[in-house]
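Onboarding guide, step 5: your first structure request.
Type a short instruction followed by the sequence, for example:

Predict the 3D structure of this protein.
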Amino acid sequence: MQKRIRLIRGGFAGIVLGLVAFLGYVALQQHSARPPSPSAAPYDLGEVDVGIQGFSYRKTQSGMVQWHVEAEKAQVYESQHRAILEEVQVQLFREQERVMILRADKGTIDTDTNDFKLTNREDDIAVQLANGFTIFTSQLSWVDARQEIRTTAPVRIRGNGLTITGTGLVGNLEKEEFTILDDVRVEVPS
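The system replies with structure tokens like these:
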């Protein structure tokens, strides 16, 4: 009788394991047959080498961070040495002290030269300086070899009760000097 019970239990266990394996196979087949949801594939991977959510890229020199770029999404094109970014924040440092924070809707980094460009769709990019001034412009470029920010777009600078407007800007991070290139106007409240 014990042999018969063991055979029945063994047979029952085999049937259960077989059923579990079959259900697992069916579930895998149905899952792979479904098209991916939009949240599962946020990028058009046609030419993109890597699509990243939660992108972080920083440049260091002699163990010190010079700048740090974070983005919600990135598309990396390795052969072109380029990363296309969405919802970007950039922090620029001098001697481990944060000097500037920039936020933009879109950006591009040249991973070979470490230059980057930032643009906004609607509102201006706000460049917050550690000295209390804020620069507003629709587009901005960072030239890493010269450690400077640049734009040819209209610019507005606010801080310490002043508003300075003009067209184009060059700012040197090392010297903390900013020059508006054309049509400079200064408004001082009376």
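Each response can be followed by summary notes, for example: The chain has one helix and eleven strands.
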